[in-house]
Amino acid sequence: MALKDHSLDEKITKAAFDEFMEFGFQKASIRKIADRAGVTPGAVYTRYDSKDDLFCSLVSNFLSAVKAQSEPIGKMYFELLESKNVDALLDAIRKEEKIYLDILFQYYDECILFFCRSEGSSIYAMVQKMMEHKTVETVNFLKEMAQSDIDLDGIGMIMGEQFHYYQQILEKGYSKEKAVSCMKTVETFVEAGWRDLFERILQ
């Protein structure tokens, strides 16, 4: 059995990254990726089961970074359940947004693939599931805090906009400085809404 030539791994990865960045998941092909890398399609399939498998591998570091922060962020909010302090809750939202913005710029190219080039892939479905999970997580937190019914659809729309902010930052190619400035403007409006919601459910 022939040994896999690992010297080709980086060439294939770079070629795939360039192909997906230029054409997106749907229009990219294994053959074009192989041509860019100067290898045969078989060399690509030796390493990846499918185009989707290859695409997923390119955003794995970003996903790992998000997963690593999920528990600390959840713990941060859980510790605020008893206090029901509106200012502390708003501060937690700001901290969470900063964490994710830092991750976005740390894995900038991967995030472009994830948010802007993934349509048609299993990652695209994952984006939708992440939005749904974040919505349910937020609603459950609010229910626990308020002991009352919360509008799931309304919260879903709010959380969907949060993902849309990150997508716009990537699509418009903002620098981190510009992105932080924009998010501060967004926070001015969004925080007023969160404050009103928190104060109403805590009455």
TrEMBL record:
Cited PROSITE patterns: HTH_TETR_2
Record's keyword annotation contains Transcription regulation: yes
Domain of life: Bacteria
Record domain HTH tetR-type: where: 6-66
Pfam families cross-referenced by the UniProt entry: TetR_N
Gene3D superfamilies referenced in this protein's UniProt entry, alphabetically: Tetracycline Repressor, domain 2
DNA-binding region: 29-48
InterPro entries hit by this protein: Homeodomain-like_sf (IPR009057), HTH-type_TetR-like_transc_reg (IPR050109), HTH_TetR (IPR001647)
An example molecular function term from Gene Ontology annotations: transcription cis-regulatory region binding
Keywords, comma-separated and alphabetical: DNA-binding, Transcription, Transcription regulation
Protein name per UniProt: DNA-binding transcriptional repressor AcrR
Organism: Dorea longicatena
